[in-house]
């Protein structure tokens, strides 16, 4: 199992970053390895998304997301997967000044096939800063 956390104050509007994170269908445009995302929105603040991602191998998984724009939180839990035993996490966004957001991202994943810990930690922790930068760049490009 791998756990990772990213925490930093970033020069970005909280609402714009929240919008970029919750536009799951746009992930293939800017998230490394993300091939497709199919989104189902049945209730306000609740989203089910099916992801097809190329990591160590191509994997598919379904996550249930809970969004709370006012609180600046997005959390998710694994529903089903061909490769994950666990995929849970959350974003927490807090405005700390004009155009500045305190960003917390936490992730806990476990694969259902053997992956050496060093490789898993490098995949999870090593990619976090660039992934967050991708969301920030996407947020800055939103109209």
CATH-defined architecture: 2-Layer Sandwich
- Neighbour order of strands in the largest sheet: 1-7-6-5-4-3-2
Apparent shape? globular
Beta-strand percentage range: over 45%
* Number of extended strands: 7
Note poorly predicted spans. none
Q: How many separate structural domains?
A: 1
Number of helices: 3
Oligomer: single chain
Pattern of helices and strands? EHHEEEEEEH
| Helix content percent band | 25-40%
What is the first-to-last residue Cα distance?
38 Å
What would CATH call the homologous superfamily?
Answer: START domain
What is the typical, i.e. mean, pLDDT?
90
CATH class: Alpha Beta
> Any idea of the CATH topology?
Alpha-D-Glucose-1,6-Bisphosphate, Chain A, domain 4
Classify the secondary structure makeup into a structural class.
Answer: alpha+beta
Characterize the largest beta sheet: strand count, sense, and whether it forms a barrel. 7 strands, antiparallel
Summarize the structure.
It is built from three helices and seven strands. It is of the alpha+beta class.
